[in-house]
Amino acid sequence: MASTYKPEQARVPPAVQLPVPPVTKFKIALCQLSATDDKERNIVHARRAIEEAAEKGAQLVLLPEIWNSPYSNDCLPVYAEDIDAGGDASPSTAMLSEAARSLQITIVGGSIPERSGDRLYNTCCVFGKDGKLKAKHRKIHLFDIDIPGKITFVESKTLTAGDNHTIVDTDVGRIGIGICLDIEFQELAMVYAARGAHLLCYPGAFNMTTGPLHWELLQRSRAADNQLYVATCSPARDAGAGYIAWGHSTLVGPFGEVLATTEHEETIIIAEIDYSQIELRRTNLPLQNQRRGDLYQLVDLQRLNS
Ligand SMILES: NC(=O)CCC(=O)C(=O)O
């Protein structure tokens, strides 16, 4: 016998109705950039890549996790910037703001180490085409891993975890933000989907151990589970670095299909997003209506407590 449960009985009802995005089709750029120990060079380099992406028609540009610094516990405090103070205190975000305004694009600015008081965060800033900071996401799940003989990294040695999830309305739709390890937690992606996200953006530097196994799998899972777009952007691989990034920045569509990807070298991926595909897939396979909230429930505590 069919269940008598109705989706509207869910404690946090899913956003069955997607918000109408300002654009249906547009180009996204994933700038898979190298990060050196020269911060000034990294900023100039990222600025050039953003400009090239805009010249190729991208309306949304995504940068990698920790693009202005090497990804190491020694470097994070040295390269950290006071984003809230802005101006000279944060040359990396000043560049992103200027680039977004002058090129008239939306930028999901990867992440940089942020200093706030005596704390450090791994932080992603989103700029609108007016150059204004629209959202700031501090990585919620810090990357602590110990696989003997393979990889040991303890991000929590230097960084503090953020306490908020971040969803932002932009000129290119509603975007949920996560940083790298945040992609491992399906609840976060589900909360974003329930809040009507069209696209999830994850700047992320996976590694040579988990990268081959998990990177694409997680992106496709988050996209297929939630029937929305997922975009990731990694730093390019530097085989001589202390932390070797997997690369393979990727765009996945709402049916879990890889729409564009790359290997590990520096590159700019330009790909088209078509939000009408979300409605199509949700009509083809109406998971939203098939959920069994009488058996399990998603609780968005941030929304409940706000
Ligand atoms: N920078 C990160 O959070 C890396 C996460 C990662 O590699 C993973 O396996 O998860």
TrEMBL record:
Keywords for this protein: Hydrolase
One GO cellular component term: mitochondrion
Domain of life: Eukaryota
Pfam families: CN_hydrolase
Gene3D superfamilies assigned to the protein according to its UniProt record, in alphabetical order: Carbon-nitrogen hydrolase (3.60.110.10)
Keyword Ion transport: no
Keyword Hydrolase belongs to the record: yes
GO terms classed as biological process: asparagine metabolic process; glutamine metabolic process; oxaloacetate metabolic process
MF-aspect GO terms: omega-amidase activity
Highest classification ranks of the organism: Eukaryota, Viridiplantae, Streptophyta, Embryophyta, Tracheophyta
Protein name: CN hydrolase domain-containing protein
InterPro entries reported in the protein's UniProt record: C-N_Hydrolase (IPR003010), C-N_Hydrolase_sf (IPR036526), Nit1/2_C-N_Hydrolase (IPR045254)
Domain CN hydrolase residues, every copy: 26-275
